[in-house]
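Entry for the shared binder. Reason: the reviewer on the internal report wants the predicted structure included alongside the sequence.
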Amino acid sequence: MATIPLVHKTGKLSNSVLVFDFEGTMLRSTSLFPYFMLVAFEAGGLLRSLLLLLSYPLVWLAGEENHMGLNIMVFLSFFGIKKDTFRIGSSVLPKFFLQDVGREGFEAVQSFERKVAASKMPRIMVECVLKEYLGVDAVAAREMKSFHGYYVGLLQREKKHDKPLLDCNNVVGIGSQIKNDEQELFSRCKVGVYLVSNAEKRTWEALPRERYPKPVIFHDGRLALRPTPLSSLALFMWLPLGLFISMLRFTIGISLPFKVSGPILSFLGAGTTLSKSQVYQNEESEQKGTLYVCNHRTLLDPLYISYVVDKPLSAVTYSLSRFNELVSPIRTIRLTRDREKDRETMGKMLSSGSLVVCPEGTTCREPYLLRFSPLFAELTDDIVPVAVDVQVGMFYGTTAAGNKALDPFYLFLNPKTNYCVGILERLKRCNTCQAGGKSRIEVANYVQSEIGKALGFACTGFTRKDKYMTLVGHDGVCNCKCPSGAAVSLHKGRIPNPN
């Protein structure tokens, strides 16, 4: 048997079809447990994921890739999950799969224009990342059985695959260990089957983010770490103390002035990195009616900006929960998504004080900036861009499909966090609408690009609607349905469909 580098040396093979084992050919890790733990935690909750973790010794003894071990993980992860609302395969798993892809395996697979991927995992888990992010033409994987709209935790007996695609004479196979249910598929490989050893995979490099065929811009789910058995054990050991610390951090943050709470929160692991441009520091800091325009990482962005500038600010929101509105230390006003009404509301707030606005309209946790709504550019020429980022290690403090009222608690549930807020240079009058004669779209583009440069993030033309359509299947306002995993494309530095 030849090894995988020999396949890559043949160059682009337009007349051949590749059949490859996804887990054995592209993923550096040999363990499937983290992906089922993600399904159990995100779709089933804390108790289900704990049960899966406790069953891991049995799964390990049976073998994760063997029939019994795989069926145990499938049953515990999927039993009782509602079929119609399952979107983990398109909203959560692609990012973790791509982080596990090896550069060497990726290059070998990309040598072929037509590709068929075989997977041991259920189709619902792998189809999105293989077809939408890795450009695979067909997926050979088993379907999940369901009853009255709920998964029963069992797999269909046979894998479904695209037989016409394999009816050619130049079919090449790549895999690690060809299981019994894959024999029929790989028997169609008339050129040969190339094997990849686990020792070889241990030397692979992670695929750089810039090499992804399609960037991961939208991502959901609460877990920020890769839930291996050891990291999952550490997570559950941390939770009892973490819940107490989260409540303590939250209480201190909303009840004490930042000059007092800041050092205490830093001592408790919730650090803050503050920076101001030299030009901004030399300006009149007590100026009223300033519009602070920031990118949106979590719902605490306006609160931290208020701490940085050391003066009371107001914030406008779209979908802040009633609980978070009640406990917010700063004034919050709901917008209606009616342009004229929102413009009037924001104008009144600016006339009485300074205001924070997040023109992305929704949070984005990846290193990208969504399209900036240009409405803010019409309100004033006194605009200060603010670059915001937050580092977490265990949980994300944002969600598209979950309960948004819990966002600050999940953020503070991390053993350590660091909130970075950078106040950039105030916009020059020549770059504004009223004094500089710029269009509102030009101003919004400029502010987006300045924040992107400060953070090292790429600017896109995606909107709040694009995010919710991709992650949860509706526009974030109504409950209308759209096909799972709706595809969107990247447009750097553009703001289409202005308000």
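Summary line for the report: The chain has 22 helices and 16 strands.
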